[in-house]
Amino acid sequence: MDFVKLLELVIAASLINNFVFTRFLGLCIFFGVSKKMETAVGMSITFTMVMVVSAAVSWLIYTYLMVPYELTFLKIIIFIGVVAALVQASDTVMRKISPVLYYKLGVYLALIATNCIIIAVPLINSGEGYNFIESLFFGLGSGLGFSLALIIMASIREKLELADVPAPFRGMPLAFVTTGLIALAFTGFAGLITL
Amino acid sequence: MTNWQLIKNGIFAENTIFKLAISLCPSIAVTNSVKNGFVLGIAVLFVQTMVNVTVSAMRNIINSKIRIPVFMLVISGWVTVVDMIVAAMAPEAYKQIGLYIQIIVAFASILARAEVFASKNTFVPSMFDGIGMGIGFMVALVIISFFRELLGRGSLWGFAFVDFKPLLIMIMPAGGFFAVGILMAFFNWMELRGGKAPSHH
């Protein structure tokens, strides 16, 4: 396995094809939890963990169950089941093993059960035909990219709280325009590396 | 509420994108051309209606303890159906928006209507609720993509008819966020002028 290739995959998934700014996935969560830095950080950690694990598990199921038995047309149903079960399982495991961590991150776990990003990772992995290691790193890169987006947004919105904004733009509209500006900055990453 | 009121409720009072501000991903992802916006709108309209109808028909036999997994199963079943239909009937559009059609499965709006409305109401009102919510979603996508395609490409539905140097930014990712933000602000402004406070935050 070529290490440089994997590094490129992580950079591509996190910066160039950032989930929020160029693929537009997970916007509900992105706008929902980016108001405070603390929640944004908690969400980022949980998200990245679940993404890597779900990428791994769904790759195994896809390759060793769905492909041999020709069930790939059911991938939407199966992946949503896998992800939901996985989130539920990590909820239970986390509560037993580390109650402190559960107390901090448990709320976010419940939120991401049916989030579009989490379901998009296995779908993209199977669509692109990544192998096991590549799938893992794609999940990691996507998670890091989403974390970066959340943390940038949270730090901007904390400042925006103090700004005097025209009434019609208060709340969501301003958040959208801000995201547009960040997205514009992120287009600068396009062409950073060519895969 | 009458059936007509149910449809109007979905289009105006509880418009998924502009009022409730949920299921936002496709509002930017597929709105760089009117055609893509329309195809996804139709897909959502179909899934929303069929899910509402199915859940409503089965509401008496679904155990309330496992209702959410059952709803998810119903939704992903219908999304698979739509996914295959679009792949077969509109292969060009499917290449661009295929991922977002599969993502319909994770739309909060569809699960929300199944839980809030269809599981408590009879067959016919649920159907009209689904149609209303679906049309509301489609209208929102078409409005956004109308502005983006017109300004960004100088065309509508692929037909170029405005002769000016297009604002390329409008079809880029950033333009999508700007378009939605400005449209939301515009609707807020209309409401503020009408003397009502904006209904979402």
Short account of what is shown:
Chain A is mostly helical. Helix content of chain A is 74%, strand content 0%.
Features:
heterodimer; A: 195 residues; mainly alpha; 74% helix; B: 201 residues; 9 helices; globular
Percent in strands of chain B:
under 5%
Assign an overall shape of chain A: globular
Strand proportion of chain A, as a percent range, falls in under 5%
Name the quaternary structure.
heterodimer
Class by helix and strand content of chain A? mainly alpha
SSE pattern of chain A: HHHHHHHH
Low-confidence residue ranges of chain A: none
SSE order of chain B, one letter for each helix or strand: HHHHHHHHEEH
Low-confidence stretches of chain B: none
Topology:
The complex is a heterodimer of chains A (195) and B (201).
Chain A (H helix, E strand, L loop, with lengths): L2 H14 L10 H7 L3 H30 L8 H23 L1 H14 L3 H13 L3 H29 L11 H15 L9
Chain B lengths: L2 H11 L2 H5 L4 H5 L4 H25 L8 H23 L1 H13 L4 H11 L4 H31 L1 E2 L2 E2 L12 H21 L8
Antiparallel strand pairs in B: 1-2
Helix pairs in contact in B: 1-8, 4-5, 4-6, 4-7, 4-8, 5-6, 5-7
Written overview of the protein:
The complex is a heterodimer of chains A (195) and B (201). With 195 residues, chain A is mainly alpha-helical. Chain A has one domain. Chain A is built from 8 helices and no strands. The model of chain A has no long low-confidence stretch (mean pLDDT 84). With 201 residues, chain B is mostly helical. Chain B has one domain. Chain B has a two-stranded antiparallel ribbon. The longest helix of chain B has 31 residues. Chain B is globular. The relative contact order of chain B is 0.19. The mean pLDDT of chain B is 83. At the A-B interface, helix 2, helix 4, helix 6 and helix 8 of A face helix 3, helix 5, helix 6 and helix 9 of B.
